[in-house]
Each structure stands twice: as structure tokens, then as C-alpha cells.
Design goal:
- The protein is α+β, with helices and mostly antiparallel strands.
- The strands form 2 sheets. A 4-stranded antiparallel beta sheet has the order 2-3-1-4, with helices on both faces. A 4-stranded antiparallel beta sheet has the order 6-7-5-8, with helices on both faces.
- It is about 65% helix and about 5% strand.
- It contains 21 helices and 8 strands.
Length: about 675
């Protein structure tokens, strides 16, 4: 019989080998469909998105816009100007340009700019990057503009995959070694997480091919973090329970079956909640947010499948020796009971629950006030933690042309109406120069230079004025309009996605816990954590990290991740608390017992998850660094303050009312729950 059971384990491993073999061709193609163009991040319905789509269809396709910047501190000489003219002529001779570049000198004579736009690269990112690099080699000045920024951003995202994966693996490995205190055991969940990450890449590619979901560097990076973070959490819970079962069950196979029956339902419920929360992002209008929803859900579900099938099979095949040197021998007693940190925390919450609850709530509210200190929407040039050439060029332009726009606003109108549109654009307030760049395919592209600096309040007012004055059928886009649309749409998406996430999570918790009050406590707690974590970001982003702004999507994405992941730990704690109540304990003692039994595992899981998201802080994109910081801080607050003190103290204060209107709210303390009501979950 035991040999047959071991064959089952080997059979599962063989099945996974087949799965990985089938997934390999798909996973290797994910990089080919990853896109980091502006249109892949823009709102689906925005004016700037329509401009990008229309210009792609015009003769020559999408244009790549560059600004060539020649600068000398003491003032440009005649030789400098002549050399710049020759270099620009050489670029124009090599590439078809949409218009003849004209020199625009600064008032102080230190700077000269040429606007260069070509349709030859089209929508192909590789061709665009080659064009930008070739221009940079041909000219002695700095090369900026939206095309150069896109190339620099693409290179940054392209460089993330390796460092992000290696750093994440190293962080998880170190934490697992510390937690397990074994030279071998840590390799098993880490290997399984790597397999899950590879599988998630294949599934994401298949979803892109089948449903055309947006795949960006940001979404795939976050997916990797989720696979390793959430997957390791599930592994910690399973291995902890498996170790317990090995002490009372002689055969590893039977011990694993018992462990899966014990913690499997909680892991399934928590991962399902996270996946559903992520899928709520499909309701967002922002392409980047909507694309991140399914990729994040894929990461969580692939981690779940791997940790509930591949990990158990490996552990069963390896047997007890994988725990060396702390091998759990059959019949050995569990570790001697000792007063743990979480027992002490739970006791303090139980002695003065009202004081603990009020103090904790006040602390979170005070931290949330830091939101008022968040810097404004980030500008394109401030999106990099390093300083690529495109950013250097934009800063040079901002200093030399303080009262003039240095990147064009693009207006597209029907070709038949282009003359009238051109006149209305010229008459609009804040417009310095207007040119028709090209026409074709029934559309005309009009290049507008504002009389204000890029992404300034004056230029924003000009964009809004143009959209208001030009009316239906005329679209206003360009880099600054894209940033404006992102900010406006992020606000709109929050009003839709935030309530949707709260409703979905609340419904899942109500069904799972068979109560209304307990789910409301958990949801209120994670919302408070989100506010506090975002507030801490407001206190440190500018002063400590030097970030000049915040990504418009930060609030929404951090909310979805923190609510979904925070409820994860709430499920583990409340599930155990409900089991203790079914076994006869009052909610107060049950909450303390649940905290003592699950606190260590939840703390380990929280540390791993926070550490994996903290990896993003060192990435060279400010948006990723901010998102990683807020989520990491939020997970730590949730693990060590909210779960430990606030949820516990609220449960003690409410007593049986915490389970209202379920049967546990009325159950007498002397009667344990029936067998059908007992929960098999012990984490």
C-alpha cells in the first residue's frame, strides 16, 4: 500500500513534467507580446488613445517624435549652429520626416532645439528603438521627446525581468532558510514557486493570444512578485501543518493528505478571494490596470495549483528527511509550549480591548493623514529613478524655454474639416504655433505648440480649452494629454473599481464565515491599512526617496492589492477563530487561541510577502517603487498591528455578536458545534 502511495507522488511529478514541457513554447514567447507603448497604458476611451490609434492608421503609421537639443552654457557659437544644422540635415536625408525641422533658439542664446518626427519606425518598438539610437549616434546634442522617452522606458522595463526575478528569489530564499532552519527544505517551495512563475508566463501568453489582454512590463513584473510572495505564503501554511501531522501519523503520504484536508480549504478560499479581487480591475478604463487584473489573477492561481499539487508530491517523495536537522519523528511531542510573542500580544489585546482598539484606530487615522502630503501627479521625466538621456534633454529644455512648450500637442481631425479646425486651434488661448504635420486616410494631423511648459498648469488649461472648443470628432492627444487622461481616468476608475472590490470581497467573506459582522470588521481593517500605508508613502516619497510625484494609478492598484492580500490573512485568522467557537470557546478566548496558534505562521507569511513587494522599491521605475513600498508597508501593518491587535480586540469586545446573524451568534457556550459544522481548517 505504501509503495502504491509513493507511486501517486511520482505520478504527480511526471504530470508536472509534461505540463512544463507543454508550457515551455508559450512561456518563451511572452516577451514577444509584451508592450510598453503609451497606448498600452492609456485609458481605452480617452482622446489621447484615439489620437494614438488614428495616427497608427495614417500613411506611414505612428510617428516617433524626437527633440534634438543643442546647448552650451556660455552661449552657442556660429560653428555650433552650423554643425547642428548639418547633423539635422543628415538625419532628414536618412529618414522620411513628417515636416522640415526648423531651429528654435532660446532667448538667452544657450540652447537650440529641432523637432524631428518620422513615421518610418511605425508601431514596431524594435524599429523605434533602433531609430532613436541611430539618431543619438548621428547628433552631438541630447535627444529627447516622447519617442526617446518611450525607448528609455522600454529599455528599463526590458532590464527588469532578470534583476527582479533574481532579487525576488534571493529574498525569498533567505527568509525561508531563517524560517525553516534547514539547509534543504527551503529549496522545495522555492523551486515550486519558480515552476509556478514559468507556468503563469505560459498561461498569460495564451490569454493574450485568445482574448487580447494587454501585457506590459509592469503587469508581468507584478505577476512574478505575486507568484513568489503568495505562493510562498501557501507553502508556509502547508508545510507547517504537514510537520504537525508527521508527528502523529507514521506515513508521509497519509500525513500530507491530513495536512491538505486541514489547510487546503483556507488556502483555496484566500487565493480565490485574491484572484477575484484582482479580476475586478477588468472594470477599469485604464489599459494598464485592466491588463494587470488577469495577469495578477493568473499568477495567484498558478501559485495555488503548484503549491497544492507539486509541492505535496515533492514533500511526500522526499519523506521526513527533507526537514533535516529538525526532523519531526512519529510520536514525538510537539514543541514545548512557551509564551510566544503573539501570545503576549493577544493577552494585552484581551486585557484592555477597548483601549487597544481605540489606540490602534487612532494610530492608523493619524498615519492616513500623510495622504495630504502626497506629491502631485508624476511627470514623464520624473518616472525614472535614474536619469536617462531623454530626461536630461527635457530638463535642459525646461530651463532654456520656461515660457514655451517643448513637446507638441497632437490634434487629429477629419481631413475635410481640417482648415476650419486649424483656424479654431490658432484662436485658442495658450497656443504659440500650429502646423499641419500630415494628412491621409481621411484624417489630418495638426501639431500644436503651447505657450507654456510641458505638463504645467498653463499647458493643461490649453489642452482642456482645445478639447472644449474643437468639439466632437476632433481628438487632442500627445504626451502631455496622455498624462492628463491617465490622471483623470485613474480618478474615474477608483469610483468604479473600489466599490466593486469591496462588494466582491465582502460577499466571499460572508459566504465563507457565515456572518456579516466579522466580514465587515475584516474589510474595514484592510481599508484602514490601505489609508495608513498610502499616508506613510506621503510622508517619505518626496523627502526621503526624492520622488517628484506619484503615479496616477497608485491609489487604485495599492487598494486592490492590499484589500485582496490583507483579507487573505484575515481568512486564516477568522477561520481558526470560528473553529474554536464551534468547539465550545467564547469569541474572546477563541480569538486569543486563534492568534496563538496562527500568529507565527501568518507573521512568517506576512514577512515574506512584504519582502517580495519591497523588491520593487529598488527598481528603476518610480511607479513600481511607489507601488512596492505602499504594499510592503501595508502588509506589515496588517500582519503586526491590525490582525494581532485590532481584529482580536474587536472580537473580544463584540463577543458572540461578531458572528451575527449566523448560528454561532446564538450558540450557548457549553455546546460544541456539530460534526457538520466543524471546520477542518487548522493553519
Amino acid at each position: 500500500m505504501e509503495g502504491r502511495k509513493r507511486i501517486v507522488g511520482w505520478g504527480v511529478l511526471a504530470l508536472w513534467v509534461i505540463v512544463i514541457a507543454l508550457a515551455a513554447p508559450l512561456a518563451s514567447k511572452l516577451g514577444d507580446v509584451q508592450r510598453d507603448r503609451a497606448v498600452d497604458y492609456l485609458p481605452a476611451s480617452a482622446d489621447s488613445t484615439q489620437v494614438a490609434k488614428i495616427t497608427e492608421q495614417m500613411p506611414g503609421g505612428e510617428s516617433t517624435d524626437l527633440v534634438l537639443v543643442y546647448h552650451r552654457e556660455g552661449g552657442l557659437t556660429a560653428a555650433d549652429r552650423a554643425s547642428a544644422a548639418r547633423e539635422v540635415e543628415a538625419v532628414a536625408a536618412e529618414y522620411p520626416l513628417t515636416s522640415v525641422p526648423r531651429p528654435v533658439p532660446s532667448e538667452d542664446g544657450t540652447t537650440l532645439l529641432y523637432a524631428v518626427s518620422s513615421t518610418e519606425p511605425g508601431t514596431d518598438e524594435v524599429a523605434r528603438d533602433a531609430f532613436v539610437h541611430d539618431v543619438r549616434e548621428r547628433v552631438s546634442g541630447e535627444v529627447g521627446g516622447s519617442g526617446a522617452l518611450a525607448t528609455d522606458a522600454s529599455e528599463v522595463y526590458g532590464s527588469l525581468d532578470g534583476p527582479l526575478l533574481y532579487t525576488t528569489v534571493a529574498v525569498v530564499a533567505i527568509l525561508l532558510i531563517v524560517i525553516y532552519r534547514s539547509p534543504f527544505l527551503w529549496l522545495v517551495p522555492l523551486t515550486v514557486a519558480g515552476v509556478a512563475d514559468y507556468l503563469s508566463m505560459a498561461v498569460t501568453y495564451a490569454l493574450h493570444q485568445g482574448f487580447d489582454i494587454s501585457v506590459s512590463g509592469q503587469s508581468t513584473g507584478v505577476m512574478t512578485i505575486l507568484v513568489f510572495g503568495a505562493g510562498t505564503d501557501y507553502a508556509l501554511l502547508l508545510v507547517s501543518r504537514y510537520r504537525e501531522e508527521l508527528r502523529r501519523i507514521p506515513r508521509p503520504y497519509d500525513a500530507m493528505v491530513a495536512a491538505l484536508r486541514g489547510c487546503g480549504p483556507a488556502v483555496l478560499a484566500s487565493s480565490g478571494t485574491v484572484a477575484l479581487g484582482m479580476l475586478c480591475l477588468l472594470a477599469a478604463d485604464m489599459n494598464s490596470s485592466r491588463g494587470m487584473g488577469p495577469t495578477a489573477a493568473v499568477g495567484v492561481l498558478c501559485a495555488l495549483v503548484a503549491m497544492l499539487t507539486l509541492l505535496p508530491a515533492l514533500l511526500v517523495v522526499l519523506g521526513r528527511r527533507v526537514f533535516w536537522p529538525l526532523i519531526p519523528a512519529y510520536g514525538s511531542p510537539p514543541k514545548a509550549a512557551r509564551r510566544s510573542l503573539f501570545a503576549a500580544m493577544g493577552s494585552s489585546a484581551g486585557r484592555r480591548p477597548l483601549a487597544v482598539l481605540l489606540t490602534g484606530a487612532a494610530a492608523l487615522a493619524a498615519l492616513a493623514l500623510g495622504v495630504l502630503n502626497l506629491p502631485g501627479a508624476i511627470k514623464q521625466e520624473d518616472s525614472f529613478s535614474s536619469t536617462p538621456e531623454a530626461v536630461t534633454a527635457m530638463k535642459t529644455l525646461a530651463a532654456a524655454y520656461p515660457q514655451m512648450g517643448t513637446q507638441p500637442i497632437t490634434v487629429v481631425a477629419r481631413e475635410a474639416a481640417s482648415v476650419g479646425v486649424l483656424e479654431r486651434v490658432r484662436a485658442a488661448e495658450g497656443v504659440a504655433r500650429v502646423d499641419i504635420a500630415r494628412s491621409g486616410g481621411g484624417w489630418s494631423e495638426i501639431s500644436v505648440v503651447a505657450s507654456h511648459a510641458p505638463q504645467s498648469a498653463g499647458e493643461t488649461a490649453t489642452i482642456r480649452e482645445l478639447r472644449s472648443a474643437l468639439g466632437e470628432g476632433v481628438y487632442v492627444g500627445g504626451p502631455s494629454a496622455e498624462q492628463l487622461d491617465m490622471a483623470d481616468t485613474s480618478t474615474s476608475d477608483q469610483r468604479i473599481v473600489v466599490p466593486l472590490v469591496l462588494v466582491v470581497v465582502l460577499i466571499v467573506l460572508v459566504v465563507l464565515l457565515r456572518s456579516l459582522v466579522a466580514p465587515l470588521i475584516l474589510v474595514a481593517a484592510v481599508v484602514a491599512v490601505w489609508g495608513a500605508a498610502l499616508g506613510i508613502g506621503g510622508l517619505v516619497f518626496e523627502g526621503f526617496f526624492g520622488f517628484e510625484g506619484t503615479d496616477p494609478g497608485l491609489a487604485l492598484l495599492s487598494f486592490v492589492f492590499l484589500v485582496a492580500l490583507g483579507v487573505d490573512y484575515g481568512i486564516f485568522l477568522m477561520h481558526r477563530m470560528r473553529e474554536e467557537c464551534l468547539n465550545g470557546l467564547e469569541p474572546g478566548p477563541a480569538a486569543l487561541a486563534a492568534l496563538r496558534s496562527t500568529g507565527g505562521v501568518i507573521a512568517s507569511a506576512g514577512l515574506v510577502l512584504a519582502a517580495t513587494f519591497a523588491v520593487l522599491i529598488n527598481m528603476p521605475m518610480v511607479q513600481l517603487a511607489e507601488l512596492g513600498f505602499v504594499i510592503a508597508v501595508g502588509v506589515l501593518l496588517d500582519t503586526f498591528l491590525v490582525r494581532t491587535y485590532l481584529v482580536t480586540s474587536a472580537s473580544v469586545l463584540l463577543g458572540r455578536r461578531v458572528w451575527w446573524p449566523g448560528p454561532l451568534a446564538k450558540k450557548p457556550s457549553s455546546t460544541a458545534g456539530s460534526e457538520s459544522e466543524r471546520l477542518p481548517v487548522r493553519v
